[in-house]
Specification:
The protein is of the alpha+beta class. It contains 13 helices and 9 strands. β4 (68-73) and β5 (79-85) form a beta hairpin. The radius of gyration is 21 Å and the shape is elongated.
Length: 291
Amino acid sequence: MSKISIRFYNDHEVRAIWDEELSKWWFSVVDIVGAINNEADYQKNRNYWKYLKTKLKRDGNEVVSTTNQLKMTAPDGKKHPSDVLDQKGVELLGKHFPNTKATDFLDWFTYSDNTIDGRSRKKAYTFIESNLVADKDVGTVKALQQIHAYIFGGLYDFAGKIRTKTISKGDTLFCLAQYLPDYLKTVEKMPETTFEEIVDKYVEMNAAHPFMEGNGRSTRIWLDLILKKRLGLCIDWSKIGKSDYLDAMVASAVSSDKIRALLQQALTDKIDDREIFMKGIDYSYYYEQEG
């Protein structure tokens, strides 16, 4: 049970562990309690679940009987047995939660995986096993198009296709469409021999924003493939906060110093670690959430 996934509800982590034998996810009850109550304190959430579990058990509620225990990492950095529920159990818990706060959580939990983001994220989880990008293509525009097409294929009709319209986000105007083909050729030729060069190339590809949608999610995978090939490293995205990342990327329009420093402190040599990759996908999608 090494496949860990993280969903984000109102900026609260909800961790899940994949059960290969039963082919389903188990979700951390303490995380769910924290998300519903909008409480960041782990111990308070643990205590609340202890109280609620006792109450539900006393009432003969079937939620307790569906609870399993798996080892999850606690705030002390160590793995301890922790209560988990499968999807049916989470829905039961939400319906019997002693306040109305669980309604919005259940709506999110029930439907979030059916959105374009939810469906593309599931496809992104399997990208590492696809062997889609040939080693010789890493760092090229072709590789980025393959990543985008894999993740968003069947979801967007422009999956893997370079945009022909000019786009912007907030106050940021990305490369004008008429100049994009030449700009991408220039970015593709940028060197990738050092960490600094690779980050600069990543920053320029972000400035290009070659697709109508899904640029950030695709380009962060593209970056990790380059780092893996050239330096034997990748980014542990779970070590980079959302606001820090977004601020650094905005600043990269003037200087890449801030994003370079942020990425450098999150480098890891665990390039074949499935958990690192899956957490990276989860955080990558989290960066794109509104709010």
